[in-house]
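Report of the visiting student (M.T.), summer placement. My assignment was to run the structure pipeline on a short list of targets and document each run. The first record concerns tRNA threonylcarbamoyladenosine dehydratase.
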Amino acid sequence: MLNIKLNERTFEAEDGATLFGLRDAVRPEADIVILNGAAMSQDVRLSNGDEVCLIQRGVVPSEDELESLIAARHTPGVHEKVKSATVGIAGLGGLGSVIAVALARVGIGKLVLADFDVVEPSNLNRQQYFVDQIGLLKTDALVTNVRRINPYVQLEAHPVRLTPENLFPIFGEIDVMVEAFDRADQKVMLMQNFSAGRPNIPLIAASGLAGLGPEETIGVQKMGKNIFVVGDLETGARPGCGLMAPRVGIAASMQANLALRLIVEGTV
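After the run finished, the structure tokens were exported:
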């Protein structure tokens, strides 16, 4: 017998079983067949430990199946590690809101979110909010949006301005810290205080994201044992060089990807 995972549940298949044979026997109406994270169009023989998801287009899955199907396209072994992790995000603007959405989509276990501000019209050019959320606290709006994407993510939201005094009560129990502020003084405050108080927790910051410059200049630089900075470290917002969704989004996705790598690779 083969021990496999079928829609994230343990399943025993006969030796020599094939992918499409399993589909035909268990869920013949499925028209999307995923094997170890990849959508398959040809039949293959199954192996011990394979992960299979069977999905029928247009059909809303049951609640107990939904979480596994959200993670169906992940690399095998990722979901278990990510689901047990907690990431803190300081600032929920163009960086933080995009990071939160990306980590929710990969099934992060818990997000700790902090921002004192409200959604305003100029946020909509790059932040993950909607016109009908103008005037709402960013914490409230983002919690609503994330829950619509993945209801299985635990969310802890703090509508406060972060200071050295409240930083660790809020971000005391996390695996990765992400700095996502717009203002330089806030970035410095968080980086100095967090790295001093929690030197063993990775801190992922960002600097130099404005304008529409070349995307290949946005990179990741490691500064010290556990501090990483994403961006070009040069291009700040100024008259004639504003903040826009594409370049800010590139950096935010790189921050989210780095957090994911640190969690999955076991370095946190």
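The chain has two domains: 2-76, 79-264. DSSP finds eight helices and twelve strands in the chain. I thank the supervising group for their guidance throughout the placement.
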